[in-house]
User: What shape does this take?
Amino acid sequence: MIYGIGEKALSESLAVSEDEAKQFMESFIDKYEGVKQFIFNTVEECREREFVETINGRRRYLPHINSSNSMIRLKAERQAVNSTIQGSAADLIKTAMIAVDKALIDNEKIDSRIVLEMHDELMYEVKCDHCHQFVILLRECMQNCSKNFTVDLPVKSKVGRSWGELREYNQF
Assistant: This one.
């Protein structure tokens, strides 16, 4: 919903009528007033500047935000909100990856290597006897990767011998 899904697409996605989708969207916006205000502010600011920025200051220019063609304008409005949110999420994970890398350089005792980064997830190969120490380091780096947030960033950790065997790790 934050990314600008319409009633029709939401109704198809949830397998409900368009009226039910509309009611759900309205109740969501009513319940989370901050979301409504964020979307409004993001679009209005983009109208003035014709670009949006991520939390780390990367810009996406959207010159069609003031188009007289409503389809083009609405697409640019959705892109403004989407780019701000997804771009900021990408900033966070990149910042976290750098923090983890620096922490691992400082702590040469942890034998690990990054395998994969996908959206907001990081996957590492870690020697079994270094697992606990690595998870603590990883969580600390990920939770503290941005000073731009006033809320905690929750981090879930999973461990396993293979991707299919991953289980949540709560040994703290």
User: Anything to note?
Assistant: The first strand starts at residue 51 and ends at 53. The beta strands are 51-53, 59-61, 112-118, 121-126, 158-159, 167-168. The chain is about 50% helix and 15% strand. Residues 70-106 form the longest helix (37 residues).
